[in-house]
């Protein structure tokens, strides 16, 4: 079943669902008036209006970084009535090539790796886009291959045109990170920097770390860390500052103790224990 909505004076129709995330569902949309985008399709990110705060914020971020060729464009916003409910819609460029993750997987399926020259060119595109984001005072916070879109090949080359997308977790540089017990980490852990995991710190350096992980994945065809390696890394990160952080936590919350991993390694038996330990360390900045 399709739904029809208008953006300004232009009519659009939603077709198939392309994907869904934490803050909205993305659809392929066709335009009834080609004067708006000058192309046949767009991607529309939709969320029920009463739950659309993060999606609206993402649209604002995209407007702030709109004038860069390596960042996906947001063309318009609209509110439609679908199944009796108000729905917020954000219209963006449609990437027919999928994501950088899809491209990496395609190389893996063929049993080959991305040519180093291509990886270098794509790294330059991403650096250009990311530096623009940082100059505008924003931090992406979730840079990874799945959030990098592929557009048609650049004229006269075999290179695709990459654009950074999905600013749903982005923030302004000046925004303070909220430190909350057992809160969800901002971003994807396998691409996250140590300080963002341990202390919930998300600055421009966090994006640079994530970009490094992404470039390495382009060149090797695999993520920087496996699940098992991430687990070992978490343990090592928690063990290092544990005594200092426990001292800080005890001073603020005497009844809350940090697991002493060095003296009691048997206490760390599952990811839930580790998550509690990591969350407890975040009290350092409370």
TrEMBL record:
SUPFAM superfamilies according to UniProt: Protein kinase-like (PK-like)
Secretion signal, residue range per the UniProt entry: none
Superkingdom of the source species: Eukaryota
A Pfam family per the record: Pkinase
Residue ranges annotated for the Protein kinase domain, each copy included: 12-286
Keyword annotations from UniProtKB, A to Z: ATP-binding, Kinase, Nucleotide-binding, Serine/threonine-protein kinase, Transferase
InterPro entries: Kinase-like_dom_sf, Plant_MAPKKK, Prot_kinase_dom, Protein_kinase_ATP_BS, Ser/Thr_kinase_AS
Annotated residues for binding of ATP: 45
UniProt similarity note: Belongs to the protein kinase superfamily.
UniProt protein name: Mitogen-activated protein kinase kinase kinase 20-like
């Amino acid at each position: 079943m399709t739904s029809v909505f208008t953006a300004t004076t232009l009519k659009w129709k939603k077709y198939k669902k392309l994907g869904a995330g934490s803050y909205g569902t993305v659809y392929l949309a066709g335009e009834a008036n080609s004067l708006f985008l000058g192309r046949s399709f767009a991607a529309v990110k939709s969320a029920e209006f009463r739950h659309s705060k993060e999606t609206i914020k993402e649209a604002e971020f995209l407007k702030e970084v709109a004038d860069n060729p390596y960042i996906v464009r947001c063309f318009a916003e609209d509110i439609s009535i679908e199944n009796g409910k108000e729905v917020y819609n954000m219209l963006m460029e449609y990437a027919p090539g999928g994501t950088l993750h899809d491209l990496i997987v395609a190389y893996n399926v063929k049993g080959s790796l991305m040519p180093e020259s291509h990886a270098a060119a794509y790294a330059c595109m991403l650096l250009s886009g990311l530096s623009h984001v940082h100059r505008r005072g924003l931090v992406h916070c979730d840079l990874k291959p799945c959030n990098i879109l592929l557009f048609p090949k650049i004229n006269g080359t075999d290179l695709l045109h990459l654009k950074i997308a999905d600013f749903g977790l982005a923030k302004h540089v000046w925004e303070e990170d909220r430190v909350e017990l057992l809160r969800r980490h901002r971003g994807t852990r396998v691409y996250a920097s140590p300080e963002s995991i341990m202390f919930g710190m998300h600055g421009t350096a966090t994006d640079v770390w994530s970009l490094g992980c992404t470039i390495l994945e382009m060149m090797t065809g695999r993520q920087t860390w496996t699940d098992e390696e991430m687990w070992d890394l978490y343990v090592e990160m928690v063990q290092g500052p544990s005594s200092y952080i426990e001292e800080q936590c005890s001073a603020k919350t005497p009844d809350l103790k940090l697991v002493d991993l060095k003296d009691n390694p048997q206490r760390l038996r599952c990811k839930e224990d580790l998550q509690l330990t990591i969350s407890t360390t975040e009290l350092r900045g409370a």
